[in-house]
Structure formats: C-alpha cells, structure tokens
Design brief:
two-stranded antiparallel ribbon; 3 helices; about 5% strand
Amino acid sequence: MFLFSNFIAALARVVDIALTLYMWIIIARAVISWVSPDPYNPIVRFLIRATEPVLGRIRRLIPINLGGMDFSPIIALLAIIFLQSFLVKSLAEFAMRLG
C-alpha cells in the first residue's frame, strides 16, 4: 500500500509544480500584453499558444471587459490558487492517510 501512497504523493507534487509553472506563464502573458510585443517573436507566440485555450474559454464563459481591461488572467490565477489549495492538498492528505 505504501507504493500507492508514494504515487499519490508524487502526483500531488507534480500537479502543484505544473500549476505553479502555468501560473507564471499566465503572469508573463499578462505582462507582455502591457507593451506592444512582436507577434512573430517565438516567446510571445509560445505564451499566446499556451494560455489562449484557458483564457479564451474564461472570456467566453464570463465576458467581463471593463474599460478595455481583460480580467481573464486574474480569474485564471484565482482558479489555479483554488486548485492548489484544494486539489493538491487533498491529494497530499490522501497519500498521508494511506501511508
């Protein structure tokens, strides 16, 4: 049973790292949107391709656009923080109880 416990603990850690990395990608996308980035820059293209599926879905579900300001990155960051607080901690607690 300890193998399953270790697997769940490792899964919780990987999910936590992935969510943190995606949070920083969203922050980078928000920061570059304040300037006029070169759309052909590979980094800019990566940031847009990596974040647009999530941010676009949030924009369609919650069309909040006050004064030209896009609030979808803030909502995405709040969702990531919720997942880290709920899902990751729940997985880690489950792994501790198994082990």
